[in-house]
Amino acid sequence: MSKREEIARAALQQFQAHGFHATGINTITQAAGVPKGSFYNHFSSKEESALETLNRYAATLRFDMLTEPGRPALVRLRAHFEHLGRDTLDNGFVRGCLAGNLGAEVADHNEEIRSAVRHGFDRWASHIQQVLDEAQEAGDLDSALDTSATALFILSAWEGTLISARVEKSAAPVEAFFRIVFDVVLR
C-alpha cells in the first residue's frame, strides 16, 4: 500500500515545525510511521518532498476566502489574514509560513525550491492585487493606490509579521499588521 500521503503530511508538519535543514528523512519517516525506504519509493530526495509540501501548504492558505461572493473586497482580505493569524496564534508561534521559511532557508542553495517559492508568492500577491482592484472599483480604496505594489507590500509585511511573532512569542506583531495595513494603508 502506498505511504505517499502519510509521508507528505509528515514532511509538511516537520518542515513547518523545524525547518528544512533541521528535518531529516529519518525524522519525516518516523513522524509518518513508515520505514525509511518508503520515503524513496515516493520521493527521490528531501528537496522533492519539500516541493510537494509547498503545494500542499498553498491549499491551507485559503485563497478561496479572497473570492468569496457577497462580501466586500477588503472584508474578504481581512478575513483571509485573520484566518492565517489564528493559525499562528493557535500553534503557539512555532510555525510560520512554510513558503517564507523555505525561501529564507533554502532559496540561495536550491533553484527549484527558490522558483517554487517565488511562484507561490507571485500567485498570492496576484490574489491580493485582485482584491485591491475590486476595492478600488467599488470606491472602497483610493484610486491612486498602486495595487500591485501594495499587494507586494502587504505580503511582505505579513511574512515579516510571522517572523516577529515567532521571535517575540507574541500576538503584538499580528495586531500591528492589522492596525497598519487595514487602518492606515487601506483606509
The CATH architecture of the largest domain can be named as Orthogonal Bundle
Helix fraction by DSSP (H/I, runs of at least 4): over 70%
Number of strands: 0
Low-confidence stretches: none
Question: Using only CA atoms, what is the Rg?
Answer: 18 Å
Tell me the domain tally: 2
Q: What percent of residues are in strands?
A: under 5%
| CATH fold-level topology of the largest domain | Tetracycline Repressor, domain 2
Q: In CATH, what is the homologous superfamily of the largest domain?
A: Tetracycline Repressor, domain 2
H-E string? HHHHHHHHH
Main sheet: strands, sense, barrel: none
What general form does the structure show?
elongated
Q: Could you tell me how far the N terminus lies from the C terminus, measured between alpha carbons in angstroms?
A: 54 Å
User: Any idea of the CATH class of the largest domain?
Assistant: Mainly Alpha
Overall mean pLDDT: 93
Helix/sheet category: mainly alpha
Tell me the number of helical segments per DSSP (H or I, 4 or more residues long). Answer: 9
